[in-house]
Amino acid sequence: MLFLDVVKLYKTSLRIGLNRPWAMVHGEYLALRLRNEFVDAHFRGIPDEDTGYYQFIEDYTKRGFTPPYDGNKHYAIANAKEVCVRYHDLIESMRSSLPLYNTMNFWNAKKILRELHGDLHERRPRTVYYFKDRTYGFQKESSPYPTVVRIGINFVIGNGTHRLAAFKYFYDKGAAIKRFPALWV
Q: Among residues 146, 157, 179, which one has the least CA distance to residue 7?
């Protein structure tokens, strides 16, 4: 388990990203920025339908899942309302557990992350559109652990972009969160 600087990981993931041509707009990983803005909207009480993240998902769904979209090369997130409810749960779980995040270390991080987030992923699978079969289905999170990939001298988020966006929000608002726990894959 690595513990990476939240701000640096967010910035490099926003600009460098992984090879995500389906999600990059003008050199920016659009879905990551919109997720960060969604966290702010969550705490300001803005209705989901009025957020850029919700509108982004609704827009590409109406366009037939053409880029840019949120997902990966195999599928696109297909239900804005559902993914927003799921994200609200994750944000609240993280907010109530902020002190616990600062106690994480190499030896206890996996256990803490599994306890904090494992149940959220099981309870709320996402509806997705599979490109290969042109069908809708459900996708569960593959792991409660965020992952990062090294690109040159930088680490970039793989799995865990919703958590990274929320961590960045909490950091910006003065929470003592400075390190993002992730597995290096």
A: 179
Cβ neighbours of residue 81 closer than 8 Å, sequence gap 6 or more: 48, 54
**176: β partners:** none
**SS3 for 27?**
coil
Extract the tokens encoding 59. 């827009």
Note the helical H segments in the chain: 6-15, 30-44, 52-62, 80-96, 98-101, 109-123, 161-172
β-strand pairing of 135-139 with 147-151? unpaired
Cα(88)–Cα(119) distance, rounded to whole angstroms? 14
Tokens 């993914």 -> residue: 83
Report the run of H or E that residue 3 belongs to, with start and end.
Answer: strand 2-5
- Structure pTM? 0.91
Per-residue pLDDT of the chain (185 residues; tens, 9 = 90+): 889 999 999 999 999 867 788 999 999 999 999 999 999 999 999 999 999 999 999 999 999 999 999 999 999 999 999 999 989 988 998 898 888 887 888 888 888 877 776 555 555 678 999 999 999 998 876 677 788 999 889 999 988 899 999 999 999 999 877 888 888 88
